[in-house]
Amino acid sequence: LPFWIYDESMMTAEQIRKRILALKADGKIQLAVVDYCQIVASDNTADNREQEVAQIARLLCATAKDAKIALLVLSQLNDDKRLRESRVIGHEAHNVFILENKEKENQMIFKVVKGRRIQKKDYFLYYDPIHSLLASETRTAEPESRCRKSTYPDA
C-alpha cells in the first residue's frame, strides 16, 4: 500500500482536509492518521483552545465522511485519563480507544471505551519492547496470569 507522510509543523484541519480529498480524488487513500489532534493548528481564533480543538474534531469527522475513508485521530489524555482540551473529540468519534502501557508487566491494554459495532471491553496485549511488537494474549481464568501467558513466539 502507498504510504504518504506530511510532516509539517503547522497544518490546519482545513489543509489536512484538502490533502485527504485530493488523495481520495486520485484514488490514493483509504486511511488517514492525524498524530495528534491537539497540535493541529486552528483556522480561526475561538474564545479558548477547547473550542478550537472541538472545531478541529468536527472538521476531521466531516472529512472522513465526505472522503468515505477511515480516519484515525490520536489524542492526548489529561491526568484523569480523559481526552485533553476537548471531550468533543470523543463525541465526534465513532470509536474511542485508549492504549494503556503497562511496561513493567510487558503488557498493553487496548480499551474500547466507545464503540459503534464494537463491544466495549479491554483487550490485553503482550508487549515486546525490544522489537516494538504487540500480540494477543492467551486467555486464562485468572486475571493475574494474563500478562504472563502469550501467543507471541518465544515469550
Layout of strands and helices, then pairs:
Layout: H1 13-25, E1 31-34, H2 49-67, E2 70-73, H3 88-92, E3 96-102, E4 107-114, E5 122-128, E6 133-136
Parallel strand pairs: 1-2
Antiparallel strand pairs: 3-4, 4-5, 5-6
Helix pairs in contact: 1-2
Description:
A hairpin with a 4-residue loop joins β5 (122-128) and β6 (133-136). The protein has 3 helices and 6 strands, in the order αβαβαββββ. The two termini are 30 Å apart. The chain is an alpha+beta fold. The protein has helices at 13-25, 49-67, 88-92, and strands at 31-34, 70-73, 96-102, 107-114, 122-128, 133-136. The strands form 2 sheets. A 4-stranded antiparallel beta sheet has the order 3-4-5-6, with no helix packed on it. Strands 1-2 form a two-stranded parallel ribbon.
